[in-house]
Amino acid sequence: MTTTTVSMTVNGKQLSADVENRTLLVQYLRESHGLTGTHVGCDTSQCGACTVHVDGLPIKACTILARQVEGKEVTTIEGLADGEKLHPMQEAFRENHALQCGFCTPGMVMSAIGIVDRNSDSLDEKTVRHELEGNFCRCTGYHNIVKAILAAHEEMTA
Amino acid sequence: MYDFNYKRASSVDDASSSMASADDGKFVAGGMTLLPTLKQRLAMPSDLVDLADLDDLVGVKVDNNSVTVGAMTPHAVVNASEEVKKAIPALSKLAGLIGDPMVRNRGTIGGSISNNDPAADYPSAVVGLGATVHTNKREIAGDDFFTGMFETALEEDELVTKVVFPIPEKASYMKFPNPASRYAIVGTFVSTGSQGTRVAVTGAGPCVFRQPEMETALENQFTPESVENIKQDDSDLNTDIHASAEYRAHLVTVMAKRAVAEANG
Under an 8 A CB cutoff, do B35 and A64 touch? Predict the structure, then answer.
Protein backbone atom coordinates (compact mmCIF):
# COMPACT_ATOMS: atom_id res chain seq x y z
CA MET A 1 0.00 0.00 0.00
CA THR A 2 1.46 3.37 -0.98
CA THR A 3 1.89 5.90 1.75
CA THR A 4 2.60 9.61 1.59
CA THR A 5 4.01 11.93 4.22
CA VAL A 6 1.28 14.30 5.32
CA SER A 7 2.18 17.36 7.38
CA MET A 8 -0.01 19.89 9.12
CA THR A 9 0.04 22.17 12.14
CA VAL A 10 -1.89 20.59 15.00
CA ASN A 11 -2.45 22.64 18.15
CA GLY A 12 0.44 24.90 17.15
CA LYS A 13 2.89 22.06 16.50
CA GLN A 14 4.11 20.95 13.10
CA LEU A 15 3.27 17.23 12.76
CA SER A 16 3.99 14.70 10.02
CA ALA A 17 3.12 11.07 9.46
CA ASP A 18 3.20 8.57 6.61
CA VAL A 19 -0.36 7.62 5.78
CA GLU A 20 -2.39 6.02 3.00
CA ASN A 21 -4.40 8.25 0.71
CA ARG A 22 -7.59 6.89 2.25
CA THR A 23 -6.59 7.79 5.83
CA LEU A 24 -9.16 10.06 7.44
CA LEU A 25 -8.13 13.10 9.45
CA VAL A 26 -9.58 11.54 12.61
CA GLN A 27 -7.42 8.42 12.10
CA TYR A 28 -4.39 10.60 11.46
CA LEU A 29 -4.97 12.46 14.72
CA ARG A 30 -5.81 9.43 16.87
CA GLU A 31 -3.66 6.69 15.39
CA SER A 32 -0.64 8.50 13.98
CA HIS A 33 -0.35 11.11 16.73
CA GLY A 34 -2.16 9.65 19.75
CA LEU A 35 -4.55 12.61 19.97
CA THR A 36 -7.44 10.49 21.17
CA GLY A 37 -9.50 13.39 22.51
CA THR A 38 -11.15 13.58 19.09
CA HIS A 39 -13.73 10.78 19.17
CA VAL A 40 -15.28 8.60 16.52
CA GLY A 41 -18.97 8.26 17.32
CA CYS A 42 -21.13 7.34 14.37
CA ASP A 43 -18.47 7.37 11.65
CA THR A 44 -21.24 8.42 9.24
CA SER A 45 -20.88 12.22 9.44
CA GLN A 46 -23.91 12.70 11.65
CA CYS A 47 -22.95 12.73 15.35
CA GLY A 48 -20.24 15.41 15.47
CA ALA A 49 -18.08 13.67 18.13
CA CYS A 50 -15.10 14.02 15.78
CA THR A 51 -15.42 17.80 15.34
CA VAL A 52 -12.11 19.69 15.10
CA HIS A 53 -11.21 23.08 13.68
CA VAL A 54 -9.40 23.35 10.35
CA ASP A 55 -8.17 26.87 9.64
CA GLY A 56 -10.48 28.08 12.41
CA LEU A 57 -13.69 26.43 11.18
CA PRO A 58 -15.38 23.43 12.82
CA ILE A 59 -15.53 20.41 10.52
CA LYS A 60 -16.07 16.66 10.95
CA ALA A 61 -12.72 14.89 11.07
CA CYS A 62 -14.33 11.57 10.05
CA THR A 63 -15.41 13.05 6.72
CA ILE A 64 -12.18 14.49 5.40
CA LEU A 65 -8.98 12.80 4.28
CA ALA A 66 -5.73 13.62 6.05
CA ARG A 67 -4.35 14.54 2.63
CA GLN A 68 -7.07 17.17 2.18
CA VAL A 69 -5.75 18.88 5.32
CA GLU A 70 -2.08 18.92 4.21
CA GLY A 71 -0.48 22.23 5.21
CA LYS A 72 -3.47 23.48 7.15
CA GLU A 73 -3.90 24.50 10.81
CA VAL A 74 -5.84 22.08 12.98
CA THR A 75 -7.07 22.61 16.52
CA THR A 76 -8.32 19.66 18.54
CA ILE A 77 -9.78 19.49 22.04
CA GLU A 78 -6.23 18.93 23.35
CA GLY A 79 -5.21 22.33 21.99
CA LEU A 80 -7.77 24.47 23.83
CA ALA A 81 -6.54 24.68 27.43
CA ASP A 82 -3.72 27.00 28.33
CA GLY A 83 -1.65 24.70 30.55
CA GLU A 84 -3.81 23.95 33.59
CA LYS A 85 -6.25 26.73 32.71
CA LEU A 86 -9.26 25.43 30.79
CA HIS A 87 -10.65 27.24 27.75
CA PRO A 88 -13.76 29.27 28.76
CA MET A 89 -15.95 26.79 26.86
CA GLN A 90 -14.44 23.82 28.71
CA GLU A 91 -14.82 25.68 32.00
CA ALA A 92 -18.47 26.47 31.22
CA PHE A 93 -19.17 22.80 30.42
CA ARG A 94 -17.62 21.88 33.80
CA GLU A 95 -19.46 24.60 35.73
CA ASN A 96 -22.84 23.76 34.19
CA HIS A 97 -22.47 19.98 34.34
CA ALA A 98 -22.94 19.87 30.56
CA LEU A 99 -21.93 16.23 30.26
CA GLN A 100 -22.69 12.85 31.64
CA CYS A 101 -20.72 10.09 29.90
CA GLY A 102 -18.50 12.62 28.15
CA PHE A 103 -18.23 10.83 24.83
CA CYS A 104 -19.76 13.62 22.75
CA THR A 105 -18.11 16.37 24.81
CA PRO A 106 -14.94 17.05 22.78
CA GLY A 107 -17.04 17.47 19.63
CA MET A 108 -19.63 19.53 21.51
CA VAL A 109 -16.97 21.89 22.82
CA MET A 110 -15.30 22.34 19.42
CA SER A 111 -18.66 22.89 17.75
CA ALA A 112 -19.79 25.26 20.53
CA ILE A 113 -16.76 27.48 20.00
CA GLY A 114 -17.85 27.70 16.36
CA ILE A 115 -21.32 28.79 17.49
CA VAL A 116 -19.85 31.59 19.62
CA ASP A 117 -17.51 32.63 16.78
CA ARG A 118 -20.41 32.89 14.33
CA ASN A 119 -22.65 34.73 16.78
CA SER A 120 -20.23 36.95 18.66
CA ASP A 121 -22.66 39.91 18.75
CA SER A 122 -25.57 38.15 20.33
CA LEU A 123 -26.60 34.59 21.00
CA ASP A 124 -29.91 33.19 22.22
CA GLU A 125 -31.06 29.76 23.28
CA LYS A 126 -32.95 29.10 20.05
CA THR A 127 -29.85 29.75 17.95
CA VAL A 128 -27.71 27.51 20.16
CA ARG A 129 -30.22 24.66 19.90
CA HIS A 130 -30.49 25.06 16.15
CA GLU A 131 -26.75 25.27 15.56
CA LEU A 132 -26.14 22.15 17.67
CA GLU A 133 -27.95 20.17 14.98
CA GLY A 134 -24.69 18.47 13.96
CA ASN A 135 -23.83 17.15 17.41
CA PHE A 136 -25.60 14.30 19.16
CA CYS A 137 -25.63 13.80 22.92
CA ARG A 138 -27.47 10.69 24.10
CA CYS A 139 -27.27 11.44 27.85
CA THR A 140 -28.03 15.01 28.78
CA GLY A 141 -31.05 16.07 26.79
CA TYR A 142 -28.87 19.03 25.74
CA HIS A 143 -30.25 21.34 28.41
CA ASN A 144 -27.03 21.93 30.34
CA ILE A 145 -25.00 22.00 27.14
CA VAL A 146 -27.13 24.91 25.94
CA LYS A 147 -26.69 26.63 29.33
CA ALA A 148 -22.93 26.12 29.17
CA ILE A 149 -22.64 27.56 25.67
CA LEU A 150 -24.66 30.65 26.61
CA ALA A 151 -22.49 31.12 29.72
CA ALA A 152 -19.29 30.70 27.70
CA HIS A 153 -20.59 33.19 25.13
CA GLU A 154 -20.83 35.84 27.87
CA GLU A 155 -17.35 35.00 29.11
CA MET A 156 -15.76 34.87 25.64
CA THR A 157 -17.33 38.09 24.35
CA ALA A 158 -17.04 40.11 27.60
CA MET B 1 -12.69 2.63 2.03
CA TYR B 2 -10.87 1.19 -0.98
CA ASP B 3 -7.57 2.85 -1.80
CA PHE B 4 -7.21 5.37 -4.63
CA ASN B 5 -4.70 7.77 -6.14
CA TYR B 6 -5.00 11.30 -4.80
CA LYS B 7 -4.07 14.51 -6.51
CA ARG B 8 -4.67 18.16 -5.70
CA ALA B 9 -5.38 20.04 -8.91
CA SER B 10 -3.48 23.31 -9.39
CA SER B 11 -5.92 24.80 -11.90
CA VAL B 12 -9.23 24.06 -13.61
CA ASP B 13 -7.33 22.81 -16.69
CA ASP B 14 -5.10 20.62 -14.54
CA ALA B 15 -8.20 19.17 -12.83
CA SER B 16 -9.84 18.45 -16.15
CA SER B 17 -6.76 16.83 -17.71
CA SER B 18 -6.07 14.78 -14.56
CA MET B 19 -9.61 13.50 -14.75
CA ALA B 20 -9.31 12.72 -18.46
CA SER B 21 -6.20 10.61 -17.85
CA ALA B 22 -7.62 8.73 -14.83
CA ASP B 23 -9.15 5.26 -15.28
CA ASP B 24 -12.24 5.98 -13.26
CA GLY B 25 -11.68 9.26 -11.45
CA LYS B 26 -13.85 11.45 -9.28
CA PHE B 27 -13.56 15.13 -8.48
CA VAL B 28 -13.72 15.91 -4.77
CA ALA B 29 -14.97 19.35 -3.76
CA GLY B 30 -16.10 19.47 -0.10
CA GLY B 31 -16.46 15.69 -0.03
CA MET B 32 -19.58 15.78 2.15
CA THR B 33 -21.28 13.14 0.02
CA LEU B 34 -18.28 11.50 -1.63
CA LEU B 35 -16.39 10.68 1.57
CA PRO B 36 -19.36 8.93 3.25
CA THR B 37 -19.96 7.06 -0.03
CA LEU B 38 -16.34 5.90 -0.15
CA LYS B 39 -16.40 4.91 3.52
CA GLN B 40 -19.36 2.64 2.86
CA ARG B 41 -17.54 1.17 -0.15
CA LEU B 42 -20.41 2.22 -2.39
CA ALA B 43 -17.90 3.64 -4.88
CA MET B 44 -14.42 2.60 -5.93
CA PRO B 45 -12.82 5.42 -7.94
CA SER B 46 -9.26 4.88 -9.18
CA ASP B 47 -8.36 8.53 -8.58
CA LEU B 48 -9.57 11.47 -6.53
CA VAL B 49 -8.85 14.87 -8.03
CA ASP B 50 -9.15 17.41 -5.22
CA LEU B 51 -10.39 20.86 -6.24
CA ALA B 52 -9.57 22.46 -2.86
CA ASP B 53 -6.78 24.69 -4.17
CA LEU B 54 -8.86 26.29 -6.94
CA ASP B 55 -9.34 29.58 -5.11
CA ASP B 56 -10.75 31.26 -8.25
CA LEU B 57 -13.84 29.11 -7.81
CA VAL B 58 -14.59 30.43 -4.32
CA GLY B 59 -16.77 33.44 -3.65
CA VAL B 60 -20.05 35.22 -4.22
CA LYS B 61 -20.61 38.15 -6.55
CA VAL B 62 -23.82 40.16 -6.70
CA ASP B 63 -24.74 42.68 -9.39
CA ASN B 64 -28.04 44.33 -10.34
CA ASN B 65 -29.50 41.30 -12.05
CA SER B 66 -27.77 38.24 -10.74
CA VAL B 67 -26.01 36.42 -7.95
CA THR B 68 -22.96 34.43 -9.04
CA VAL B 69 -21.73 31.68 -6.74
CA GLY B 70 -18.32 30.11 -7.43
CA ALA B 71 -18.46 26.31 -7.59
CA MET B 72 -16.17 25.81 -4.57
CA THR B 73 -18.04 28.26 -2.33
CA PRO B 74 -19.09 26.52 0.90
CA HIS B 75 -22.74 26.62 1.95
CA ALA B 76 -21.78 28.56 5.10
CA VAL B 77 -20.46 31.43 2.96
CA VAL B 78 -23.63 31.62 0.84
CA ASN B 79 -25.73 31.44 4.00
CA ALA B 80 -23.81 34.20 5.80
CA SER B 81 -23.38 36.57 2.83
CA GLU B 82 -25.18 39.86 3.54
CA GLU B 83 -25.25 40.53 -0.21
CA VAL B 84 -27.00 37.24 -0.95
CA LYS B 85 -29.43 37.80 1.91
CA LYS B 86 -30.41 41.10 0.32
CA ALA B 87 -30.55 39.93 -3.31
CA ILE B 88 -32.05 36.42 -2.97
CA PRO B 89 -32.91 35.71 0.67
CA ALA B 90 -34.35 32.32 -0.34
CA LEU B 91 -30.91 31.22 -1.60
CA SER B 92 -29.21 32.23 1.63
CA LYS B 93 -31.91 30.43 3.60
CA LEU B 94 -31.58 27.27 1.50
CA ALA B 95 -27.80 27.18 2.02
CA GLY B 96 -28.36 27.45 5.78
CA LEU B 97 -30.70 24.45 5.78
CA ILE B 98 -28.17 22.03 4.30
CA GLY B 99 -26.76 19.46 6.74
CA ASP B 100 -25.36 21.08 9.86
CA PRO B 101 -22.78 23.84 10.57
CA MET B 102 -19.79 21.53 10.10
CA VAL B 103 -21.14 20.17 6.83
CA ARG B 104 -21.88 23.72 5.66
CA ASN B 105 -18.25 24.67 6.30
CA ARG B 106 -17.09 22.00 3.83
CA GLY B 107 -19.89 21.29 1.34
CA THR B 108 -19.97 23.34 -1.86
CA ILE B 109 -22.58 24.30 -4.44
CA GLY B 110 -20.53 22.77 -7.27
CA GLY B 111 -20.28 19.46 -5.44
CA SER B 112 -23.94 19.44 -4.52
CA ILE B 113 -25.30 20.02 -8.02
CA SER B 114 -22.71 17.77 -9.73
CA ASN B 115 -23.64 14.91 -7.43
CA ASN B 116 -27.37 15.59 -7.94
CA ASP B 117 -28.62 13.64 -4.97
CA PRO B 118 -32.42 13.28 -5.32
CA ALA B 119 -32.81 14.89 -1.87
CA ALA B 120 -30.21 17.66 -2.21
CA ASP B 121 -31.37 21.26 -1.72
CA TYR B 122 -29.37 23.23 -4.29
CA PRO B 123 -30.85 21.57 -7.42
CA SER B 124 -34.23 23.07 -6.48
CA ALA B 125 -32.71 26.58 -6.43
CA VAL B 126 -30.93 26.08 -9.76
CA VAL B 127 -34.16 24.95 -11.44
CA GLY B 128 -36.49 27.09 -9.32
CA LEU B 129 -34.64 30.28 -10.23
CA GLY B 130 -33.77 29.32 -13.80
CA ALA B 131 -30.05 29.62 -13.06
CA THR B 132 -27.26 28.99 -15.55
CA VAL B 133 -24.51 26.51 -14.73
CA HIS B 134 -21.07 27.49 -16.08
CA THR B 135 -18.48 24.77 -16.61
CA ASN B 136 -14.93 24.70 -17.93
CA LYS B 137 -16.43 23.91 -21.35
CA ARG B 138 -19.79 25.66 -21.73
CA GLU B 139 -22.89 27.16 -20.15
CA ILE B 140 -25.79 24.85 -19.32
CA ALA B 141 -29.31 26.05 -18.54
CA GLY B 142 -30.45 24.90 -15.10
CA ASP B 143 -33.44 23.19 -16.72
CA ASP B 144 -31.10 20.98 -18.79
CA PHE B 145 -28.47 20.29 -16.14
CA PHE B 146 -30.16 17.64 -14.00
CA THR B 147 -30.89 14.58 -16.12
CA GLY B 148 -31.83 11.88 -13.60
CA MET B 149 -31.02 10.29 -10.26
CA PHE B 150 -27.35 11.21 -9.55
CA GLU B 151 -27.08 12.09 -13.26
CA THR B 152 -26.22 15.45 -14.81
CA ALA B 153 -25.38 16.83 -18.24
CA LEU B 154 -21.70 17.00 -17.21
CA GLU B 155 -19.13 15.04 -19.20
CA GLU B 156 -16.48 12.95 -17.42
CA ASP B 157 -13.76 15.62 -17.39
CA GLU B 158 -16.12 18.60 -17.15
CA LEU B 159 -16.42 20.57 -13.94
CA VAL B 160 -18.75 23.27 -12.75
CA THR B 161 -16.99 26.62 -12.29
CA LYS B 162 -19.89 28.81 -11.16
CA VAL B 163 -23.66 29.12 -11.01
CA VAL B 164 -25.41 32.35 -12.04
CA PHE B 165 -28.80 32.95 -10.44
CA PRO B 166 -31.07 35.68 -11.84
CA ILE B 167 -32.46 37.86 -9.03
CA PRO B 168 -36.21 37.18 -8.81
CA GLU B 169 -38.95 39.53 -7.71
CA LYS B 170 -40.06 36.99 -5.14
CA ALA B 171 -38.78 33.60 -4.12
CA SER B 172 -38.84 31.17 -1.24
CA TYR B 173 -37.73 27.69 -0.32
CA MET B 174 -39.56 25.45 2.11
CA LYS B 175 -38.44 22.02 3.06
CA PHE B 176 -39.60 19.16 5.19
CA PRO B 177 -36.24 17.81 6.34
CA ASN B 178 -35.32 14.34 7.41
CA PRO B 179 -34.75 14.98 11.13
CA ALA B 180 -31.44 13.05 11.22
CA SER B 181 -29.71 13.94 7.95
CA ARG B 182 -31.50 17.24 7.15
CA TYR B 183 -31.84 16.03 3.56
CA ALA B 184 -35.13 17.10 1.99
CA ILE B 185 -37.94 14.58 2.28
CA VAL B 186 -39.60 17.23 0.14
CA GLY B 187 -38.31 20.71 -0.65
CA THR B 188 -40.17 23.18 -2.84
CA PHE B 189 -38.57 26.27 -4.35
CA VAL B 190 -40.92 28.89 -5.81
CA SER B 191 -40.06 32.09 -7.62
CA THR B 192 -41.46 34.70 -9.91
CA GLY B 193 -39.62 37.33 -11.93
CA SER B 194 -37.70 37.72 -15.18
CA GLN B 195 -37.06 33.95 -15.21
CA GLY B 196 -40.82 33.33 -15.25
CA THR B 197 -42.86 31.74 -12.49
CA ARG B 198 -41.25 28.56 -11.30
CA VAL B 199 -41.95 25.75 -8.87
CA ALA B 200 -39.11 23.25 -8.46
CA VAL B 201 -39.43 20.19 -6.25
CA THR B 202 -36.58 18.21 -4.71
CA GLY B 203 -36.59 15.14 -2.47
CA ALA B 204 -39.90 13.88 -3.77
CA GLY B 205 -38.81 12.15 -6.97
CA PRO B 206 -35.65 10.57 -8.40
CA CYS B 207 -34.48 14.00 -9.57
CA VAL B 208 -35.52 17.64 -9.11
CA PHE B 209 -38.55 18.49 -11.27
CA ARG B 210 -40.79 21.44 -12.12
CA GLN B 211 -44.50 21.43 -11.23
CA PRO B 212 -46.15 22.95 -14.34
CA GLU B 213 -49.68 22.93 -12.96
CA MET B 214 -48.65 24.99 -9.95
CA GLU B 215 -46.55 27.29 -12.13
CA THR B 216 -49.55 28.09 -14.33
CA ALA B 217 -51.77 28.71 -11.32
CA LEU B 218 -49.17 30.99 -9.70
CA GLU B 219 -48.58 32.87 -12.92
CA ASN B 220 -52.25 33.71 -12.82
CA GLN B 221 -52.21 34.62 -9.15
CA PHE B 222 -49.19 34.32 -6.88
CA THR B 223 -50.99 33.34 -3.68
CA PRO B 224 -50.96 30.24 -1.45
CA GLU B 225 -54.62 29.63 -2.35
CA SER B 226 -53.63 29.15 -6.00
CA VAL B 227 -51.71 25.98 -5.18
CA GLU B 228 -53.48 24.58 -2.15
CA ASN B 229 -55.86 22.37 -4.13
CA ILE B 230 -53.35 21.19 -6.72
CA LYS B 231 -52.47 17.57 -6.09
CA GLN B 232 -49.09 16.23 -7.10
CA ASP B 233 -49.32 12.90 -8.95
CA ASP B 234 -47.51 10.33 -6.76
CA SER B 235 -46.90 7.65 -9.39
CA ASP B 236 -43.22 8.50 -9.99
CA LEU B 237 -42.34 9.65 -6.49
CA ASN B 238 -39.98 8.00 -4.00
CA THR B 239 -41.05 5.61 -1.28
CA ASP B 240 -38.60 4.73 1.49
CA ILE B 241 -38.51 4.19 5.25
CA HIS B 242 -38.90 7.93 5.80
CA ALA B 243 -42.00 8.64 3.72
CA SER B 244 -44.33 7.01 1.19
CA ALA B 245 -44.87 8.41 -2.29
CA GLU B 246 -48.38 9.40 -1.28
CA TYR B 247 -47.08 11.36 1.73
CA ARG B 248 -44.40 13.03 -0.36
CA ALA B 249 -47.02 14.07 -2.93
CA HIS B 250 -49.03 15.65 -0.14
CA LEU B 251 -45.94 17.46 1.15
CA VAL B 252 -45.24 18.95 -2.29
CA THR B 253 -48.47 20.93 -2.08
CA VAL B 254 -47.98 21.87 1.58
CA MET B 255 -44.42 23.07 1.01
CA ALA B 256 -45.44 24.97 -2.14
CA LYS B 257 -48.22 26.72 -0.27
CA ARG B 258 -45.93 27.71 2.59
CA ALA B 259 -43.21 28.84 0.19
CA VAL B 260 -45.60 31.12 -1.70
CA ALA B 261 -46.83 32.58 1.59
CA GLU B 262 -43.27 33.28 2.69
CA ALA B 263 -42.31 34.72 -0.70
CA ASN B 264 -45.22 37.17 -0.42
CA GLY B 265 -43.84 38.19 2.98
Answer: yes
d(CA A117, CA B61): 24
How many domains is chain B partitioned into structurally? 1
DSSP secondary structure of A92-128: HHHHTT--SS-SSHHHHHHHHHHHHHHTSS---HHHH
Q: Verify whether the Cβ–Cβ distance B101 to A134 is below 8 Å.
A: yes
**What does the pLDDT look like over A31-80, one tens digit per residue?**
999 999 999 999 888 999 999 999 999 999 999 999 999 999 999 999 99
Chain A environment of B50 (Cβ under 8 Å): 67-68
> What domain range is A126 assigned to?
88-157
CATH code of residue A139: 1.10.150.120
Is B210 inside a domain boundary? yes
Whether B246 is covered by a domain: the verdict is yes
How do residues B82-135 score in pLDDT, each as one tens digit? 999 999 999 999 999 999 999 999 999 999 999 999 999 999 999 999 999 999
Q: Which of B77, B102, B182, B183 has the most A C-beta neighbours within 10 Å, making it the best mutation to test the interface with A?
A: B102
Q: Are residues A148 and A107 in the same domain?
A: yes
- Looking at the fold, whether A49 and A99 belong to one and the same domain comes out as no
Distance from CA of B246 to the nearest CA of A (A): 28
- Is A119 exposed, middle or buried (CB count within 10 Å of its CB: 0-12, 13-18, 19+)? middle
What count of residues does chain B have? 265
Query: Cβ of A115 and B35 within 8 Å?
Result: no
Nearest CB partner across the interface for B6, out of A45, A58, A67? A67
